[in-house]
Every structure is written in structure tokens, then in C-alpha cells.
Amino acid sequence: MISIQLENDQQAFQPGDTIAGTASWQDLSKPPERVEVRLIWFTRGKGDLDVGIHETRTLAHPAESGREPFRFVAPDEPYSFSGKLISLVWAIEAIAFPSQEAAQVEIVVAPEGKEILLHRGDALSTAPSSSF
Amino acid sequence: MASHPVPARLNPFAVDRVTALPFRLTAGDWPALMTRLQDLNYRGAVVGPQGSGKTTLLEQLEREIPIHLGRAAWYVRMPHQPSQRAAVVDAVLARAGRAIVLLDSAEKTPWRGWNAILRKSRAGGLVVAVHRRCGLPVWLRTTTNPQLLTSLIRELGYTSDELPQDAIQAVFRHYRGNLREALRFLYDQVAHGNLPLPGFARPPQ
């Protein structure tokens, strides 16, 4: 099992803020050869997934169980945003290799630590005969 | 029951959540399916209509084949753009013979490339996803029914109170069993606030 604990449980950041936390692992299905902690972004929504790795910290030859603190600087861009069709989500991801057991914590990176919302309360889509 | 629009990241029908759902075998189990693939000398077709899970199955096979058969498997989709297909044929030919190639949207393969792939894959293996028979023996037919759509929706978090069976059946009928389109419709209903988020996914007020 691998997990991520963010410092003070903070999950919203402004560009330039420090994102700090600790990755912990134990009882992995295979002894870890390395543990990577990544600051990533990905899209989620109606279309295909897109992913970007902003920064990676690699711990080589880790113990079978352990803890590793990490620090990243919240990037200047892109900001976390959401519309109805797509969201851009920042996250911290920890992966143990070769088992590829992973943990992920989603965070917000945007001015004032507030996700930018794109959608308006506009008209509803046409629906088949069913109703909800 | 319209409410506020829902951010895409919270939508239970977002593509990454839907594609993470495992393929449902309607008959048999993985070991039996793998034995049948072995009997076919690792060459066969997955045949089914659009939105019946062929892509989901092939993507899952890329993980299941090494586990069950101890052989390498490689998934690739023949692109929609005709100008990009020759490059994919070349990539398939480079892999064929060394891995079981899992070729999605195989009916888009150019004729010459198709014949070359059939020849070269005799050594390694080839599983294709197609809408109708294609010259390879049929390994599996994918079908859908309202119960299958219901089970996917339940796994995405909706209870029968939140999204009743009769509403699901209406969506299934409207999209004539195309689960991909049905789930995309439900995405829109959530996005526009017509369908509330399932209880567990609602952000705190």
C-alpha cells in the first residue's frame, strides 16, 4: 500500500506556493526498486484523457516500507479549471516500481487557491424521451 | 429536476471513469476464453456493434494475456484519419511475430496492409475488433442489454433510487444498445444539471 499525506491537509495552492507532504509505503506486492512522487496535471471530462508530468522526485533503492517527504513549487500555469465538458486537474501522484502500486491526491492550483469555473447556468441539452 | 451545472471533474460519466470499468464477460470466464484463443492459434476476431465493449475488451486483453498466457500483447487502434493508417500498419508489422497484436477498428485497415498483417501475425498472434466477420475466426461476440448498462451505472455510483431501471431502459432503447452513446448522454445530463450526482459524489455544501 502506498499513500500521500499533504502537509496540514492543504489541498488548494496559489502559483508559487510550496506543496509539501509525505509519501508512505508498506506491504507492497513486490519490493520497491524506486518510488516516484510526481506533480502532474490531467484532463477529465467527456473527451479523451490528456496527462502532463510537471515534475518528478525519484527515490532510488527505497526500503521495503518507508516514508519520504517531498516539496514542489506550485506552477504558474495552467490553472485548475472546470467547465461542463472538461476539467484540468492537478494532482500529486506516488508510484512504487515495479509493482506500480500508486496513490493520488487531487489539488487545486489557481489564484487564491480557487478552481476557475467556466460554465454558466445555460440551457439544458436535448434529451431522449426518458426524464430524470 | 434541473439544478446547477456540474464540473467535469465530478461527473461520474467522465471518460476516464467509464473506461476504467472492466469488461463484463456475459458467458464463461477469462481462463476459458484464453483456452479458446489458444485453440485458435492466437488469431481471432471480436465481433460486435458500436458501443458494445470491443475497445474495452481489447484494452483489458493487453493486461490479461500476459497473466493468463504468459505472452506479450500490444494494443493499437487503426486511426480514423486515412493518412495516418499506413504508419500504424508499419507499426503493427514491426510488432507482429513478437507479440499478440490487438488491433482495434481493424476494418479501417488498408487492404494491402491487412493482407500483410494477416501473413506476418501467424507467428505471434492477432486479435481484431470489427463490426462484422473479417476472415479471421470469430473468437467472441460482444452484445449489450439493459442489465449490462444498469450494472455499469450502478458501479459508477448510482443507486436505483437515484437512477431507476425504467429510465436506464429508456436510454438503452433510445441509443439502440450503444452503451458508449448512452453513457455520453448521461454525461451530458449530469453536466447540465438534469441528473444529480450520486449521493456519495456530492461535494459538501
Notes on the protein architecture:
The complex is a heterodimer of chains A (132) and B (205). By secondary structure, chain A is mostly beta strands. Chain A contains no helices and ten strands. In chain A, the strands form two sheets. In chain A, strands 2, 4, 5, 7, 8, 9 and 10 form a seven-stranded mixed sheet that branches. A three-stranded antiparallel sheet of chain A has the order 1-3-6, with no helix packed on it. Chain A is globular, with a radius of gyration of 18 Å. Mean pLDDT of chain A is 90; it is low at 122-131. Chain B has two domains: 30-141, Rossmann fold (3-Layer(aba) Sandwich), CATH 3.40.50; 144-198. In chain B, 41% of the residues lie in helices and 12% in strands. In chain B, helix 4 links the parallel strand 2 and strand 3 (100-104). Chain B is of the alpha/beta class and 205 residues long. The interface between A and B is medium-sized, with 29 and 29 residues.
